User: Which sequence fits this backbone?
């Protein structure tokens, strides 16, 4: 059956990120976010796709379909589509209103045409320019219900600059009515870094850094040099840095030169000349690799702090908002919080490119409705799909999965965790962004010193990878130094010395932990579980890591959760009101 569309009195704005990686979609209803998700959760392809120029034809149709489903509409009912990249910043404004653009199929690297920054840019931009037609006709066959019959004149298509999308995602959903806004990532069209002042629903740009100078790309390149996958494994470099010494700090200080006005240049990288041969993927890590990672991390913190000081002097704002992939670096964020000049710092939980779908949509929505006041504040990240007990039980019966219904989910689950067992925890709406925050999580007790190693073995992760704690918001300050409201795992805090022996599994080698605080309003069932665990053990903390295994996205559907559970050495799965356990006899 095909969904029959009918325009409503509401204004729907669909946001899309599709250019580089972390393809995603979101939908706003009169300025209020009602759904958001990454495409990877539906396709099972990590980050949605690899960020190569010829993959821009891939739109996040599964995430779009989910958003339309939540809204209860067909694509024809959408009023505005906001796409978080503006190809005309590369093509040139002279092409913006031309009905036909001649894009060269081949471009010589030695060409005198300086408008093209890369030999692949012609193909890259051609796909982006044709995104509206691809949206109309390129959907997978099984999703035709909400796409078939789409008319290009049913919605207005908007290209929104990539870093404007990042900036809007940082400021507009924040709790501030005024703030300085800073964005760092690998690259956008031209900008890699931007500085803005946010007020009401406006963003005034006061500076930017352009390609090829990019702190995000430098971090990506060192990620590759250390044998990891760039645009994917940067967080592993951050974890690796804790084990090293800043032996090469002067090399990175020389590479990154910050000047006036927030400007910086990155030159003379020559990694192999400076540091020796790059590490191959399966080679052992040595102190040399740890020291490179530590030096890079420290240099990043120093330079961004210098920039933050300038931005504070320039804007005289008390509040700072951040987004872009670099803003997922929780060690850097904590350094800005503790050593920077701003009184309050808010970071978009989907700071990577997935969040640009939200930023683009919010920006266009405010413009089109001529709204000068914020309509939406982001107080949680639970914007993805959810499944009822009836839907979960129907699938388990069909799949002949053994299960039993729990009378008191929180209490009985806490009892299992207190036995030092590892569980999959599948409850409510899925998280938007890269962090599992208690809806699609693997949970365990933090009390045993061996739990970190056990979880890394369960998830087939590197031994040096830390695991993170979730803590009851009201108890956080008693367990972590100066801890405050921190619901998105975007900042680190020191574990209090008198508590270190009680939660050794979540204390990193440097004495810190990347905490998530939780209160009852954000996620009632998750909060109740921690309350029950505290009653049994006296510890209001659990280990929380993402419900996935190596190289796979976080699980989305009941099928995903059950398949991951049965093919991994978890002890139990709590899915909705049901318990699945493995027979260990």
Assistant:
């Amino acid at each position: 059956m095909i969904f029959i569309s009918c325009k409503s009195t509401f204004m729907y704005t669909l946001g899309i990120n599709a250019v580089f990686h972390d393809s995603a979609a979101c939908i706003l209803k009169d300025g209020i976010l009602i759904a958001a998700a990454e495409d990877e959760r539906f396709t099972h392809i990590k980050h949605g796709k690899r960020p190569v120029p010829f993959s821009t034809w891939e739109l996040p149709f599964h995430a779009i379909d989910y958003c339309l489903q939540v809204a209860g509409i067909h694509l024809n009912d959408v009023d505005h589509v906001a796409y978080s990249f503006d190809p005309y910043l590369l093509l040139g404004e002279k092409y913006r209103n031309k009905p036909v653009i001649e894009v060269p199929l081949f471009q010589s690297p030695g060409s005198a045409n300086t408008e093209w920054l890369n030999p692949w840019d012609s193909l890259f931009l051609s796909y982006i320019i044709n995104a509206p037609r691809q949206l109309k006709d390129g959907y997978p066959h099984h999703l035709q219900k909400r796409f078939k019959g789409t008319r290009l004149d049913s919605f207005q298509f908007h290209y929104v600059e990539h870093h404007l999308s990042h900036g809007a995602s940082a400021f507009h959903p924040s709790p501030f009515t005024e703030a300085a806004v800073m964005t760092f990532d690998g690259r956008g069209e031209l900008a890699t870094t931007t500085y803005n002042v946010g007020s009401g629903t406006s963003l005034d740009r006061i500076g930017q850094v352009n390609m090829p100078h990019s702190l995000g790309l430098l971090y990506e390149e060192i990620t590759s040099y250390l044998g990891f996958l760039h645009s994917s494994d940067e967080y592993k470099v951050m974890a690796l840095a804790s084990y090293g010494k800043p032996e090469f700090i002067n090399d990175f200080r020389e590479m990154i030169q910050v000047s006036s006005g927030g400007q910086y240049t990155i030159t003379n990288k020559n990694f192999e000349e400076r540091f020796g041969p790059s590490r191959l993927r399966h080679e052992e890590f040595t102190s040399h690799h740890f020291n490179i990672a530590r030096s890079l991390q420290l240099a990043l913190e120093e330079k961004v702090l210098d920039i933050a000081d300038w931005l504070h002097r320039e804007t005289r704002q008390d509040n700072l908002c951040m987004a872009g992939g670099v803003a997922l670096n929780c060690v850097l964020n904590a350094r800005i919080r503790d050593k920077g000049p701003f009184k309050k710092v808010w970071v978009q939980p989907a700071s990577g490119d997935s969040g640009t779908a939200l930023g683009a949509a919010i920006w266009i929505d405010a413009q089109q409705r001529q709204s000068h006041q914020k309509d939406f504040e982001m107080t949680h990240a639970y914007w993805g799909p959810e499944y009822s007990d009836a839907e979960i039980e129907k699938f388990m019966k069909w799949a002949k999965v053994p299960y039993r219904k729990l009378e008191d989910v929180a209490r009985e689950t806490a009892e299992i965790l207190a036995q030092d067992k590892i569980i999959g925890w599948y409850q409510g709406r899925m998280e938007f962004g890269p962090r599992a925050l208690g809806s699609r999580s693997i949970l365990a007790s933090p009390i045993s010193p061996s739990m970190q190693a056990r979880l890394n073995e369960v998830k087939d992760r590197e031994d040096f990878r830390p695991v993170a704690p979730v803590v009851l918001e009201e108890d956080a300050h008693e367990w972590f130094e100066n801890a405050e409201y921190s619901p998105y795992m975007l900042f680190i805090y020191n574990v209090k010395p008198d508590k270190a022996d009680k939660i050794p599994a979540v204390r990193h080698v440097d004495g810190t932990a990347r905490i998530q605080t939780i209160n009852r309003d954000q996620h009632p069932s998750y909060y109740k579980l921690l309350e029950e665990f505290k009653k049994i053990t006296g510890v209001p903390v659990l280990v929380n890591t993402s419900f996935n295994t190596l190289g796979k996205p976080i699980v989305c559907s009941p099928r995903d959760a059950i398949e991951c559970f049965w093919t991994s050495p978890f002890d139990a799965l709590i899915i909705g009101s049901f318990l699945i356990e493995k027979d260990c006899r």
